[in-house]
Design goal:
Tetracycline Repressor, domain 2, single chain, mainly alpha, about 325 residues, globular
């Protein structure tokens, strides 16, 4: 599928909204997708805390800031490239570029500067492995997901979800200078979590994606197949999320949290699979989408809490 927008289209967008140079600080912060960035930073922090060994507190803070800035850069470049379809979708029409508060060129420059700054800073001050992983994360999100997959295949979220799964590995590498089985497991948990999380959103925002020609799974394969895929990925995700307890990464508290929250996740996924008509179907899809955020946060918060508790009692 060809890209929906063109350079002329973005020029028309800017002209129609009266875009002017110089957005506010809040506008540029919004470009960085702060809600998404907060979850990225949190999972990166957990990867750092659970890694064996120690990192100087100053370097730890630098690593977290670089992960945050890198995530923000990805968000800004995503909004720059997707400005044409964002303007036509209800969920995204209020973003800074469609409303004319920031021009596409400003967003592009902002994203590039943040990308280069975060990668170089992390690589030089912490270690090259962490810097390389951050570069891979930004590049994967921008070039593989945003520019290549998103408008071409309903598997965009499945493959592109890797970008959001890298932060724990970056945090781990910041401490150890390497990638391990444990960090790859944290990556896999987020990777498997992404499809049911995002497809739940796509179910009740299906018309938005259909209107702009983005081939999300509900648009291409239909809502029933999407519900089946959500249930399938959920069934695979929940046991996978329990594994950290059996390889020494998580303890009994993590085991309890992952089992209880996983049971709720599966119950909601089953509801989404069964309820297929009208507003009730949208309601259960939205419920799963919102709970999925809490679910991922609870898993990583449990790992963090166990690590903090063990160090306080050591």
């Amino acid at each position: 599928m060809a890209r929906v927008g063109t350079k002329a289209g973005t020029d028309e967008l800017g002209a129609s909204t009266g875009a002017q140079l110089g957005g506010t600080v809040g506008d540029f912060l919004e470009l960085m997708k702060p809600r998404v960035m907060s979850l990225v930073v949190f999972t990166g922090l957990v990867g750092m805390v659970t890694a064996p060994g120690h990192i100087h507190p100053v370097l730890g803070v630098i690593a977290i800031l670089c992960i945050a800035v890198g995530a923000g850069a990805s968000g800004a470049l995503n909004m720059w490239y997707d400005a044409d379809i964002d303007a036509r979708m209800t969920r995204t029409a209020g973003r800074p570029i469609p409303t004319g508060r920031i021009t596409p060129d400003e967003a592009l420059g902002f994203g590039i500067v943040l990308s280069v700054f975060s990668i170089i800073t992390l690589g030089i001050t912490v270690n090259l492995t962490a810097g390389a992983l951050l570069a891979l994360t930004i590049g994967f999100y921008v070039f593989v997901y945003t520019m290549w997959l998103k408008r071409r295949t309903p598997q965009n979220i499945v493959i592109g979800g890797a970008a959001g799964a890298f932060p724990p590995m970056i945090g781990w590498a910041a401490v150890t200078g390497s990638v391990s089985l444990e960090s790859m497991l944290l990556f896999l948990i987020i990777f498997m979590w992404t499809p049911p999380h995002f497809w739940a959103l796509a179910l009740y925002r299906c018309k938005d994606y259909e209107r702009v020609g983005v081939p999300m799974l509900p648009v291409v394969a239909g809502p029933d197949e999407t519900r089946r895929q959500i249930l399938l990925y959920s069934v695979l995700l929940v046991p996978l999320a329990i594994v950290p307890s059996f390889i020494g990464l998580g303890g009994m508290f993590y085991l309890a949290v992952s089992v209880v929250s996983g049971a709720v996740f599966l119950a909601l996924a089953r509801q989404v699979f069964k309820v297929r008509q009208g507003e009730a179907a949208d309601a259960v899809a939205k419920r799963l989408f919102l709970f999925s955020i809490l679910y991922l946060f609870a898993l990583f918060a449990a790992l963090l809490a166990e690590q903090v508790a063990s160090r306080l009692t050591a």
